[in-house]
Amino acid sequence: MDEQALINTLNQLIETSRDGELGFRTCAEHASSAELKLLFRARAEDCRQAGAELQALVVQHGGTAEDRGSIGGALHRGWVATKAALTGYSDPALLEEAERGEDVALTHYRKALAQDLPQDAQAVVSRQLLGVGRNHDQIRDLRDQARVVASR
Fold first, then answer.
1. C-beta separation of 47 from 17 below 8 A
2. pLDDT of the chain along its 152 residues, tens only?
3. What's the CA angle centered on 11, arms 10 and 15, to 5 degrees?
4. Given 6, 7, 64, 93, which is the most exposed site by the fewest CB atoms within 10 A?
């Protein structure tokens, strides 16, 4: 993989991390459960740290690191806000949207790992993918629990 292709791939993951950070912060603002607010804030911080690590890697490889989220992420956050304005912010709905965002992150990380990354980038992206998977599973499990509670 040439350096420019690597930098583009890493910058896409930076956008993904930034989207996650902003998405989780938005969810934290609107969650009613104090525990869920804390969880969303912690996940936002995890995403921020992942993005910072990727930015450093881009610079190490001679590139200019992305510092904002993607257009798709902004559209998703807009959709969440519109949907919430119509139906009201509920913790189960926030969890559903957070899981949807983590689905996208998993796809982006898996796509990046399918490329021939240099060893340093491979190590970082692989480790971060594990974190994204843990986030996804935790959010999914909480969403499932919220659905059970809501159906009672």
1. yes
2. 899 999 999 999 999 999 999 889 989 988 989 999 999 999 999 999 999 999 999 999 999 998 765 555 555 555 555 555 555 678 888 998 899 999 999 999 999 999 999 999 999 999 999 999 999 999 999 999 988 887 87
3. 120
4. 64
* CA nearest to 48, candidates 73, 72, 18, 26: 18
Among all chains, which residue has been given the structure tokens 């992206």?
Answer: 125
Residues in Cβ contact with 105 at an 8 Å cutoff, skipping those fewer than 6 apart: 16, 17, 19, 20, 132, 135, 136
Supply the DSSP symbol for 61: T
